UniProtKB/TrEMBL annotation:
This is Proline--tRNA ligase. The gene is proS. Homodimer. NCBIfam families: PRK09194.1, proS_fam_II. It is an enzyme of class 6 (ligase). It comes from Pontibacillus litoralis JSM 072002. Catalyzes the attachment of proline to tRNA(Pro) in a two-step reaction: proline is first activated by ATP to form Pro-AMP and then transferred to the acceptor end of tRNA(Pro). As ProRS can inadvertently accommodate and process non-cognate amino acids such as alanine and cysteine, to avoid such errors it has two additional distinct editing activities against alanine. One activity is designated as 'pretransfer' editing and involves the tRNA(Pro)-independent hydrolysis of activated Ala-AMP. Belongs to the class-II aminoacyl-tRNA synthetase family. ProS type 1 subfamily. Keywords: Aminoacyl-tRNA synthetase, ATP-binding, Cytoplasm, Ligase, Nucleotide-binding, Protein biosynthesis. Its main location: cytoplasm. Consists of three domains: the N-terminal catalytic domain, the editing domain and the C-terminal anticodon-binding domain. Residues 48-465 form the Aminoacyl-transfer RNA synthetases class-II family profile domain. GO terms for molecular function: aminoacyl-tRNA deacylase activity; ATP binding; catalytic activity, acting on a protein; proline-tRNA ligase activity; transferase activity.
Amino acid sequence: MRQGDMLLPTLRETPADAEIKSHQLLVRAGYIRKNASGIYSFLPIGNKVLRKVEAIVREEMENAGAMEMNMPALQPSELWKETGRWYTFGPELMRIHDRHEREFALGATHEEVITSIIRDEVKSYKQLPLSLYQIQTKFRDEKRPRFGLLRGREFLMKDAYTFHDSYESLDEHYEKMYTAYSNIFTRLGLNFRAVIADSGAMGGKDTHEFMVLSDIGEDTIAYSDTSSYAANIEMAPVTATYERSNETPLDKEKVATPNCKTMEDVSVFLGHELDQGIKSIMFKVDEKLVLVVARGDHEINDIKLKNLYDGAMVELAREEEVRKAMGAGFGSLGPINVPSSVEIVADHAVQALSNVTCGANEDGYHYKNVTPGKDFEVATYADLRFIQEGDPSPDGKGTIQFAKGIEVGHVFKLGEFYADKMNASYLDENGKSKTMLMGCYGIGVSRTLASIVEQYHDENGITWPKQVAPFHVHLLALNMKKEEQKELAERLYDKFKQAGIEVLFDDRKERAGVKFADSDLIGIPLRVTVGKQAGEGYVEFKLRATGEQTDVHEDDVVAHVTSWLNQN
């Protein structure tokens, strides 16, 4: 491809709304352009990278036995209402009406659609298992689109679905997909971890996320410092044990705590450490009010609360709901004299406390010298807090450390979650009707592209790994007005094409400095520069990632590039 003929607009300045490197560099290097908040076009060079990522995904999906298909982005609301997700998925689901006022969703995911297809077409156990996938645009109405391709309202996703007549078959295909995902992200050159995760609105229980390690990641990974254990911080169980205090319980005392709205405010005002206080937060779990109690230095984990109740929806109670039920606002809530309509649950650490502070359920007041079991009762003690760095690893090996990660893939064992709700059944070998079992497996393809840039860049631009680079070679003729440079560059361009080497030929009549800067910014892994030594038939080879340079004669150029391409 000749650069002079290509739509490849590079920018010297960083876009004002680009907060992270991948967003900045993909825009500056001419890979993407913003059309609206969270919506991007892939320009020709960006589309080439996207297709290479897709190709690796396709190869590994087919190696795992999955068959590609294509489903509609426009989905009837009736399917989503069958599973109940029309009401529970949340505002991220884009809903529209046609001219007849019929409701549709723009596909955020395709569990309902694929299940409806399989229930109509598969009737016998002899047709199972099935493994199907697609690569298609998805839509989610993000409240705050940000970070370029990492959190958009329209994005490219690979989603796969498997259908089974036994859990053994589901487990087998789950492992195949887990392996395929590991292969995909390894082939893409990414530093990643597979972590235990929550299924969220997808349903199901067993699930892993594939996280690309990055300081700008919005997810926190809890991992052992001595073993392979890794989990999303939301899912990491706390196995710490707590010794009950030997202090003699004192009589509780109400004290004024003006303008104290947080545990930090209270601890400073009363002069004690955070772990000598109790925090109480009101949640709604499927419309039921629940007061969750935790030690003052711990953070309550709403995912664990949701799992404790096996709830469909967990959210913080509204201010008016809290005041109506408790007679006080958020900053003064506590577990004493709680109405019977509100259930109290507490994290395990609370059970070991004595003589601590808590809200008095009266604005501007707290109790001192409060002891669980004496001053209040708890319906259920459970693991309800986020794990912390330094806590014991749940696998019993080492202690927990944190890292940031970008979620690029997610695999789920859905079980009967969708098939049961949508009556997807089959006849077994005895002619008995049974509900199918399902698995679901997603990769954010466009998000993965951005994640590669987050790990492969330097101060001058992108440093693509060769397996996904838009071209293998960036051929630069520094002065197209000089005949010997132009002729040598043209000969090399023809040789590269004949050898099947992907090449971008910068034939523009630009200054050498502009060409070098653009080449570094675009990030093609091997640069071949035709310059002052063109008369002797020599060119300069430079590896973009390392800066390593060498002079090579025209006769050896193709062999040199081919040798480099064949290296692991």
